[in-house]
Structures are given as C-alpha cells and as structure tokens.
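Reading group handout, session on sequence-to-structure problems. Before we discuss, look at one worked example. The prompt was deliberately terse, the way you'd type it at a terminal:

> structure NitT/TauT family transport system substrate-binding protein

The input record follows.
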Amino acid sequence: MKFNALFFISLCLLASSGSYAAEKTVIRLGVQASGTVDWEVAAIQDNPQADFQLEIQRVANAEAGKIALQSGAVDMIVSDWIWVSSLRATGSDFTFYPYSDTSGALVVAENSPIHSIKDLNGKRLGIAGGELDKNWLLLQALAKQEQLDLNASVEKVFGAPPLISEQIKQNRVDAALTYWHFAAKLEAQGYRQIIDGRDILKGLGIQENVPSLGYVFKESWAMSRKQAINSFFKAGKQAKNQLCISDAAWQKIIPLTKADDLPTQTKLRQRYCEGNIEHWGQEQQQAAGRIYTMLHTLSNKQLTGHSDTLQPGTFWSAE
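And the output record:
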C-alpha cells in the first residue's frame, strides 16, 4: 500500500512537471541565415528561460521573413517600423519593439579624396538596396542643406550589399552607402567611414537615437503572452550585453559572424555593440514620427504608403 502511494505521488509530480514545461510560450522566430539576430539567439539559448521557448525558423531574406510573418508561419521577425506603420494603415495589428539602433554607413577607400558629402559631387556611388533605401533618401536631404543635389550629381549604382562591397573593392565605385555589417567588414580591411545613419539624422535635426530595426509581431498575439514576450525582450538585452562585455560569450558566436580574421571580428563586435539601445521612450518615439514625416515627403509616399503620419500603435508598449 505504501509503495502504491509513493508511486501515485511520483506520477503526480511527473504530471505537474510536464504540465509546467508545456506552459512555456513557444515563440516562432523567423531568422535570416547569417543575420546578427542569430548571435543573440545563440546567446539566449545558452541560458534556457522559464517563460518562453524559442523555435527558430530560417528565412531566405527580409522579404521572405515578411511573407512568413503575414501568413502566420512565424510569430515574430526583425524588420523596420516604417513597414509596420504602413501595415497598420491598412488595418493590420502588427507592432514593433526595438532590437538595434546600429545603422548603415558611407565608406570610402583609405586613400580616397572624399572626406565629406560635398566631395561626392561627380563621383560614382554604390548604394545598397534601391532608390527607396532610407539612408540614401536621408543622405540626399542632408546634401541639399549644402546645396548639393546628389540624385543629379553622382553616378548611382544600386545593388545588394555584397555586390556593392565588391564594386568598391574593384574601384568600380568611389564610395559605398551600405548596411552596417558590410560597412564594418570594409572598415576592417582599411576602408574609411565618412558618416553613418545616426550622424545623417543628427545633421537633419534628429538628436535622439532612433532604432530602425526591431522585433515585429501581431499585437493581438502578444497581448495574451505579455509575460513571455517581455521575458524574451529582457533575455535579448541581457544576451547582447553579455556578447559585448564577456569575451567568453563572444568567442562562442564567432563562427556565426562568418569572419575568419581578428580585425573583422573585432570591428563587427564594436559596431554591433554600438547598436545597444540605451533609451527607448516617448522622446525617441516622437523623433521616429519626425523621421517618418521626412521619409514620407522624400520618397513621395513610396516608402511609407499614403498615411501622412506614423500610425498609432506602431510601437509596442511592453508594460
């Protein structure tokens, strides 16, 4: 009888344990191969969390991630708040929580005669992305303050970031406006940064650091999972901090950087850690609204959609 009672208690404990494990919220995260989100995910998974369980689903590129999110194949991706606002304007309930404020940069060869935006006049400029790339639109606005029409005065070459990197290495372009990690890799090889996205914004009167990239997910999905979602964001911040202060933590994710040499690894870490979000509140969100208005005008509504203002609810309140 005593044995049966102990057996029954054991079964109850096992059932309780299994029930607790089952209560973990599963977050299906769409992640691009070789993206920096991989770095944080790896660091998070080194320290299993009580409130959530990550299920990583690989996506080929940013557009594939957007399709996966909108179709319900994943719960969350990393994207930008301008896209989120355009979706909300059509009735969707996607929302954004900041991931990084690292931004792209304008780089040139070390011995280049280009030392300022004005020096781009008459030069060949490689631009990662397309004509609606945010940094390209904002760089044009900054140049206009110096009476320079970049759209008319430079020879433009648009392409994917790897292609732009090859173009500048082969001297087919004189300068490259590219995404931050490609700029960092070029810097590690001796290229020189002229200006980055944050300094472009400062030149345009935006003093606050406004993250361009963040986690995007459905507000309706998150509302019933607040504790797990907030735990995930907290774990992500802790993981990033660990990668920036702990050499041991950084060593573990070096293979994910796809960088074989120490100078590149070091520069990637430096630029990645500069993207740490120190402040995210009303001031930064109001600044985002001003950036939106600028981009709405600069892109002739093509980037933002028809809404004149940033949509309410674009930014997730973690409270």
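Points for discussion. First: The chain has two domains: 23-100+211-261, 105-203. Second: Residues 23-100+211-261 form a domain with the D-Maltodextrin-Binding Protein; domain 2 fold (CATH 3.40.190.10).
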